[in-house]
Amino acid sequence: MNNSNDLYAKEFDTDPDVNGNSDFINNSNNNNNNNNNSSIVEDGAEVEKHLYKVLLIGDYAVGKTSLIKRYCTGIFSPNYKLTIGVDFSVKDIEWEKNKVVSLQLWDIAGHERFGTMTRVYYRYAIAAIIVFDLSRPSTFDAVTKWREDVNSKVVLANQEPIPVLLLANKSDLPTSYVDSEMLDNFCKENNFIGWYATSALNNANIDEAMRFLTKKILEVAKTNHPVKEEDGLSLNKPITNDQDTNKKSCCK
Ligand SMILES: Nc1nc2c(ncn2[C@@H]2O[C@H](COP(=O)(O)OP(=O)(O)OP(=O)(O)O)[C@@H](O)[C@H]2O)c(=O)[nH]1
Ligand SMILES: [Mg+2]
């Protein structure tokens, strides 16, 4: 384990609620900055690596873990196993030739009983994703609360709010209705970079959403580099998938 991972270890050794199954943490070389760049030589070519911490938050059972699992491993499980405290995954994206973006995805428990611990988890994040469940209106009502939570606990080095993306998950369910106009307005009024209707079950819109967020992260990182201190979307496009074509998104 290198020094940077020791930092994580110290931070979480003190916290009994962190899951012990964070398979990816040892693969990460994050140094707790929200823009961690390095380069390695692969096949004679220098490959730039950029590591960014991204938070996934939202009410319990909205599908945060399922979205991460689908995005990182391609697997979906119908069983609900609540997240205790926090879990991690890393997704490497070949952004362009000789440039890899590693997204370190922090899967934060949605159950209220874990709410008091979020400040330490939010530290050094460069972006966040707030998820709600299209079939449970109360989870949308809670989005503004999560947004305020982010704003109050993490900012960029220039003191601006971190970019936040909204995901309307479980778009596969027959009871899920996507009100694009309402979500467009909601994002504008609440300073979200945009929204996507996703399904972890159908793998709908997840790659698109993450690509959009990554683009924003790279823009933000240009003006917030290096980061030394604590820190703290209107397009409608039909997305096809194997079950229906009612997947929407909005980005600015
Ligand atoms: N139909 C459908 N079910 C989903 C989808 N995403 C997640 N689920 C199901 O919803 C339940 C909760 O999913 P999780 O991913 O564990 O939710 P979570 O947000 O991580 O919940 P906490 O860890 O408690 O905060 C599980 O039974 C999942 O299988 C989806 O896109 N469509
Ligand atoms: Mg979870």
Automatic annotation (TrEMBL):
Domain of life: Eukaryota
One annotated Gene Ontology cellular component of this protein: trans-Golgi network
Molecular functions (GO terms): GTP binding; GTPase activity
GO biological process: intracellular protein transport; melanosome organization; vesicle-mediated transport
SUPFAM superfamilies with a match to the protein in the record: P-loop containing nucleoside triphosphate hydrolases (SSF52540)
Biased composition (Low complexity): 26-39
Topology relative to the membrane: Lipid-anchor
PROSITE patterns per the UniProt record, alphabetical: ARF, RAB, RAS, RHO
Primary residence: membrane
Region called Disordered, residue ranges: 11-40, 229-252
InterPro entries named in the record: P-loop_NTPase, Rab29/Rab38/Rab32, Small_GTP-bd, Small_GTPase
Database matches in Pfam families: Ras
UniProt keyword Cell cycle present: no
Entry annotated with the keyword Nucleotide-binding: yes
Keywords: GTP-binding, Lipoprotein, Membrane, Nucleotide-binding, Prenylation
Compartments where found: Membrane
Purpose: The small GTPases Rab are key regulators in vesicle trafficking.
Protein family per UniProt: Belongs to the small GTPase superfamily. Rab family.
NCBIfam families assigned: small_GTP
Name this protein carries in UniProt: Ras-related protein Rab
Organism: Dictyostelium purpureum
